[in-house]
Amino acid sequence: MSYPRYICTICKYVAEGPGGGDLAVADLAEDFQCPSCGAARSAFEGCQCESYPLFEASKVAPAAADAINAQASLAAIVMQYPPRAQVFENLGIDYCCDGGRSLAAACAEKGLPVLSVALALAAVTNKHETVERDFSRMTLEEIVDDIQSIHHQCLRREFPPVSKLVDKVAAVHGASHPELLELKRLFDVFKDETLAHIDEEDGEVFYLLLEVARAESTITTEGARLEDFLAEHKADHKKIGRYLARVRELTGDYKMPADGCASYKAMLSSLENLEKDIHLHVSKENYLIERLNEEHCSVFAKC
User: Fold this and answer.
1) Domain count within the chain
2) Pick from 187, 180, 160: which is nearest to 259 by CA?
3) Are the C-beta atoms of residues 183 and 247 closer than 8 Å to each other?
4) Of 35, 59, 83, which residue sits at a domain end?
5) Partners of 16 in the beta sheet?
6) Choice among 117-131, 185-199, 206-220 with the minimum mean pLDDT
7) CATH of the domain at 121
8) pLDDT-derived band of residue 196, with 50, 70 and 90 as boundaries?
9) Could you tell me if residue 114 is inside a domain?
10) What pTM value is reported for the model?
11) CB of 78 within 8 A of CB of 88?
């Protein structure tokens, strides 16, 4: 079916046919990307409206963008409604390791209009009918439980089979795709360091964090120890982000090569899913630290 125009559901860029004529989504090249935000062709929806503003109002009222605080941190925006993470994923905005930045600062760095991104975030909020957990209303204990029961368990469950897939694909296709050999070496180190990281969190860091939170108004020895732990873990998060970026680079943004097999496809899909989960996982942990600093700053010597 042809439409007068196609609209990017992420940033609201308008794609029109030559001379303003009708355009079918099939007319857009398979590898077409939004010139504004880089979203894939699948992000575009057809529009019969006479003008773009009517389409925009039919999707999400511009006033809805007012609910998105441009000065709020990226982590806080995602934690308030986790499906918003997909908007940042599509735009290539790091809400994970650099989740402490404000939305305004992140948009300025990417050259994106804050209003367009805020509208995209609001549209995602309206689109999802299921009730998502609002982390801004959760206690620190509840956030810790969520991280441990969902993300830490996911990593312990998913790392072994994904590692086997990487080993298998590197062994079969490594001769024609030497980047897979580096991927295998990198993934082995990444897996071991990440599992050690979450073991330390479960074994001591989270326990200490909750104990410090309960200490309320006095600077404690535990507070000093926790500061050291958190400094180390922030550095770990940055390192994890670099590992993920390199994995994406080595796999060509998880694109299937012409000579790839079913296992190759499964590996790419598994790595991409793992990346998304870790992004959200680290974002939650950074938000947890942000909340701790806001609510229990007095227990830290450097407050």
Assistant:
1) 3
2) 180
3) yes
4) 59
5) 5
6) 117-131
7) 1.10.3910
8) very high
9) yes
10) 0.66
11) yes
